[in-house]
UniProtKB/TrEMBL annotation:
The keyword Mitochondrion applies. It is found in: Mitochondrion matrix. This is Short/branched chain specific acyl-CoA dehydrogenase, mitochondrial. It is an enzyme of class 1 (oxidoreductase). Keywords: Acetylation, FAD, Fatty acid metabolism, Flavoprotein, Lipid metabolism, Mitochondrion, Oxidoreductase, Phosphoprotein, Transit peptide.
């Protein structure tokens, strides 16, 4: 048997493309983008031009027709350099492209996949002020008009890529009296009237936009209903189950990025008491512990990806990968700051940013409590005899 961490040629090819992309395109801008809380538009264009924004999209729609594992490997690799660029790519690929590819009619696929492959950024708009962990408490309404078209009225919050996106997957309730069974998903173009009301100022992933959106009587043609009318809740659940593997990848990459920087520093750059600080056993044991935990997070990540790719039940494994990935990222980035001493605490060093960026892993696409709830529910189901 070979290691689960050995990948096919396609995946390795994407990894080396992203590694070069990080060094040449992303790294020179990371600090500036974090300070300015803004993603440089040239990075978004370069992601499209390099073929990283339509990984699983079939070639007939302008995509690479590659695997889910390739998509998450790209997210992991980008996060080693900048978790903000990583989540931009992740939301576009694993949420938006996936929703359109899996649930879109021929019309929707033919209209939007080529745009999402070439230059139009996507966003996934589910959360609202009143609907976070309880996502189906959403209050945005879709009113059906006499000609069959819809008018969307309401507001969304916390939308990643919200400031730059031109194509939105939007969840709105068309029949509130039916509860969550009234929730319907739509593909909405920004030019139809989606307004960016505010960009949040955040602790971490500051270059990634997180927007409040307003839908003020936005008219959406009936052919832009995504999937079956009234089954938007299913699309949201299925998409987020899969998307969690993407966040696990972002967190694993972040941990590796922080580890790489700090470990190189302790073995090459800093001496105390006449030795490189990495040579003290007190440091070596910590480094060994963290290296083992990153390996564990990566194994959970690619185990979940492999089960999903094979068409198996992966919900528990995806929740575990995200839960542990976010914990390992936080711990690794914290240790990396400590290992670099005062230097690690300054904004001149990337580990300070990784430490701030790590916190989001325990919050979005389901908080850690929600992951634990999912894991516990599935364990209970497995062990209950009655
Ligand atoms: C930077 C950022 C980007 C985001 N991007 C997107 C996006 O692109 N699209 C989108 O739709 N949403 C997005 N979100 C929203 C994100 O998914 C929610 O923030 C998340 O689901 C948590 O919801 P909440 O913030 O309302 O927290 P709440 O649901 O209010 O949770 C508060 C606390 O209560 C706990 N809690 C809640 N319910 C339970 C329960 N049943 N059992 C135990 N504990 C519970 C939570 O674990 C948490 O600790 C983003 C959020 C952020 C911060």
């Amino acid at each position: 048997m070979t290691s689960i961490l050995e990948f096919d040629e396609d995946v390795e090819m994407f990894r080396s493309v992203v590694s070069r992309f990080n060094a040449e395109v992303v790294a020179p801008q990371v600090e500036k983008m974090d300070e300015e809380e803004h993603i440089d538009p040239s990075i978004i264009s370069a992601l499209f031009e390099t073929g990283l924004m339509a990984v699983e999209t079939p070639e007939e729609y302008g995509g690479a027709g590659a695997s889910f594992t390739a998509a998450v490997a790209i997210v992991e690799e980008l996060a080693k350099c900048d978790p903000s660029v990583s989540v931009l790519n992740d939301v576009h690929n694993t949420l938006v492209n996936t929703c359109v590819r899996k649930w879109g009619s021929d019309y929707i696929k033919e209209t939007y996949l080529p745009q999402l492959s070439t230059d139009k950024l996507g966003a996934f708009a589910l959360s609202e002020p009143s609907a976070g962990s309880d996502a189906f408490a959403l209050r945005t309404r879709a009113r059906k008009m006499s000609d069959g078209d819809f008018v969307i009225e309401g507001g969304k919050m916390w939308i990643t890529n919200g400031a730059e996106a031109e194509i939105f997957v939007v969840f709105a309730n068309a029949e509130p009296e039916k509860g969550y069974r009234g929730i319907t998903a739509f593909v909405v173009e920004k030019s139809w009237g989606v307004k960016v009301v505010k960009k949040e100022k955040k602790l971490g992933i500051r270059a990634s936009s997180t927007a409040v959106l307003a839908f003020d009587e936005v008219r959406v043609p009936k052919q832009n209903v995504l999937g079956i009318y009234g089954q938007g809740y299913k699309i949201a659940i299925e998409c987020l189950n899969e998307g969690r593997i993407g966040i696990a990848a972002q967190m694993t990459g972040l941990a590796q990025g922080a580890f790489d920087r700090a470990v190189s520093y302790v073995f090459n750059d800093r001496q105390q008491f006449g030795k490189y600080v990495g040579e003290f056993q007190g440091m070596q044991f910590q480094i060994a512990q963290i290296a083992s935990e990153i390996e564990a997070a990566r194994l959970l990540l690619y185990n979940a990806a492999r089960i999903k790719e094979a068409g198996g039940e992966f919900v528990k494994e995806a929740a575990m990968a995200k839960l542990i990935g976010s914990q390992v990222a936080e711990k690794t980035a914290s240790k990396a700051v400590e290992w670099m001493g005062g230097v690690g605490f300054t904004r001149d060093e990337t580990v300070e940013k990784f430490y701030r960026d790590a916190k989001i892993g325990a919050i979005y696409e389901g908080t850690s409590n929600i992951q634990l709830q999912t894991i516990a529910r599935l364990i209970q189901k497995q062990y209950t005899l009655r």
